[in-house]
Hints:
The chain folds into 3 domains: 106 residues, Gcn5-related N-acetyltransferase (GNAT) (Aminopeptidase); 45 residues; 127 residues, 3-Layer(aba) Sandwich (Aminopeptidase). It has 9 helices and 12 strands. Strands 1-2-3-4-5-7-6 form a 7-stranded mixed beta sheet, sandwiched between helices. It has a 5-stranded mixed beta sheet with strand order 8-9-10-11-12, with helices on both faces. The longest helix is centred in the N-terminal third of the chain and has 15 residues. It starts with 7 loop residues before the first strand and ends in a 10-residue tail after the last helix. The C terminus is likely disordered. Coenzyme A binds next to strand 4, helix 3 and helix 4.
Amino acid sequence: MDLPQKPMLIVPPAPARWPAMADLYQHQRPPWTADLERRITQGVPGAHDVYAVLALAGRFVAGACINKFGDFGVLGHCYTRPECRRQGAARRLIEGLLSWFDMTGGKWLYLAATADLAEGLFGKFGFSTLHRVPWASAVRVTMLRARGGDGENSLAEDQGEVTVRPLSRAAWPTMVALLQYCPGPDPRVSIAESAVIAELFALDLIDHQEHSEWQLLGAFRGARLVGLATVALDHAGTRTQAMLIPHAGTPAELRNAVTELARGKGYEHVDFPMETVLQHESETPPTELPPVQ
Ligand SMILES: CC(C)(COP(=O)(O)OP(=O)(O)OC[C@H]1O[C@@H](n2cnc3c(N)ncnc32)[C@H](O)[C@@H]1OP(=O)(O)O)[C@@H](O)C(=O)NCCC(=O)NCCS
């Protein structure tokens, strides 16, 4: 079976493409398919997405995409139907997507994969490993391709003023990026462990916001997301809860915005349960092990 040489690039919204796309990605789990369907059929305001596919005899046989926000992107949904594997499909799709990303001003491109694919596939396109964690069935990694050799930390750049604004689905790539450089929701879990599930975690945060369970706020320094907060809006009574990432050194402007937002929603107190956990951890003396006999 000869695969086409050039991928087709689909820029959402492209609702007519959804049935073929849904067929290609039928193995995916609901949070991913829901996000895909939303982006393809309706488009996400503020997001700059592109889907690359190879079509054969009227069906899509391989696909991959980049979700881009500002100069940040996440490469994902890399999939080739089993009968078409090892014929260069993924390579062609990735090459097409990287050209698009570079031409449209993209600078920081992240992805999550298994260690096998990191080495056999993505490493050949200039991605280098950020985090590596043995997972249930395989070693999971996250990778970054930084254009122009800008180093490994996208947050180290740009020291503008902090501004706080609501975060929407469009900002998902910057949320994934932030979670590569600071621990996720539970600071007792290592950065590496939260980094390899950052894509799913950030998607989950957005889904909860869209179900009105909480609101997301982002602290930006220039164009960089340097902090994020969730404020629960489904708590009855006068108290609610919030989470700040990073847990230490959070921009004061973000904390203040959380308090203001909660007040505006009728809450008198905001609890930060993770701060209490951290405080407790630092106050608890290490457990003494019994002497070795
Ligand atoms: C991973 C996947 C997309 C590769 O697609 P493909 O069309 O077979 O890949 P290609 O033929 O373009 O291979 C490109 C390169 O990747 C390497 N490669 C492909 N599959 C690999 C694998 N499973 N492990 C290690 N290297 C692999 C090839 O050897 C090739 O290297 P080369 O360019 O030096 O010859 C495909 O196997 C797949 O859909 N797997 C299931 C879904 C998945 O794991 N997606 C990745 C999510 S991060």
